[in-house]
Write a structure and sequence with these properties.
alpha+beta; Jelly Rolls; 17 strands; 32% strand
Length: 280
């Protein structure tokens, strides 16, 4: 008398398990298929040049791939700016502020032409395309920051000091916010070390000189990203290390509404099964 119901229950459980796995796979596939890479290929520049917001005074930013990149440009003092610019400058050897727009790799990810450069200030933010979350980005040093850390300058120290034993470091911190322009609640932090001289073995010390993949999923449901910096080289007026980072291939994914819907279907199916079981 009990064999038939048990067989029926096992059959329904197996079917539900298969349904759950199929829906999960479908959701994952849809998410992967919908990922978008913002690689700045929709922008144009003359060879070995950049766009820093000028000559418009107090520009409010620029767009690429549906994202808005903060920028504030002021024509005073020869064109002061903060936030983000886009560039294809390929100078990896000239030190100093005059070479502030170059990635230390000499090109974008995979040798592509245009990448972005972020510099500290109120406009150092990215507003993500509506309905998306940040999945990942590639980061590297700028030539300006890398050569300052490698050799020192009149304004910043040589990392490691004269003996190489100084425990220096340089980080960029990406913070997610629920509102645009770095407003609202904090959703999470991601810290990437652009230079690390804290190892006991000095041969392990490094300054990043390649494009590095950085996972941004810890930022969760962020609508915007803010860039800030931290360094061991700090003076009376703040960080002495040039607070720049180059970035490329920002990948965004849709908000997980579809995944939530799929999970809901499975939950309802399981609830229906439990109710039927109780009625038997």
């Amino acid at each position: 008398m009990q064999l038939e119901p048990n067989t029926s229950v096992l059959s329904r459980v197996g079917a539900l398990r298969r349904l759950s796995l199929a829906l999960a796979a479908l959701g994952a596939g849809a998410s992967l298929a919908s990922a978008a890479v913002i690689d700045f290929s929709d922008l144009t520049l003359a060879p070995n040049s950049f766009f820093n917001g000028g000559p418009t005074t107090n520009s409010t930013g620029w767009t690429s791939g549906g994202a808005t990149f903060g920028n504030s440009y002021n024509s005073s003092w020869g064109g002061f700016w903060n936030g983000l610019v886009y560039s294809n400058v390929n100078d990896t050897t000239t030190p100093g502020f005059g070479n502030q727009y170059a990635a230390f790799t000499g090109a974008g990810v995979g040798g592509s032409g245009i990448y972005a450069v972020a510099y500290s200030g109120p406009a150092a933010f990215i507003n993500l395309p509506a309905g998306t979350f940040a999945q990942s980005v590639y980061l590297t040093n700028t030539t300006y920051a890398a050569l300052d850390m490698l050799n020192g300058s009149p304004f910043s120290k040589k990392f490691g000091g004269e003996t190489g034993d100084d425990e220096d470091f340089f980080d960029v911190i990406i913070t997610g916010y629920t509102g645009l322009g770095g407003t609202g609640a904090v959703t999470g932090f991601v810290t990437f070390r652009l230079a690390d001289y804290t190892f006991a073995d000095n041969s392990q010390d490094y300054i990043v000189n390649t494009w590095s993949y950085v996972d941004l999923t810890p930022l969760g449901a962020a609508a915007s990203l803010i860039f800030t910096w931290n360094s061991s080289d700090v003076g009376e007026y703040g960080i002495n290390t040039p607070t720049y980072v180059a970035l490329d291939n920002l990948t965004v994914i849709p908000e997980p509404a579809n995944a939530a819907g799929l999970a809901g279907v499975v939950a309802l199916a399981l609830l229906g099964f439990r109710r039927r079981k109780l009625r038997r």
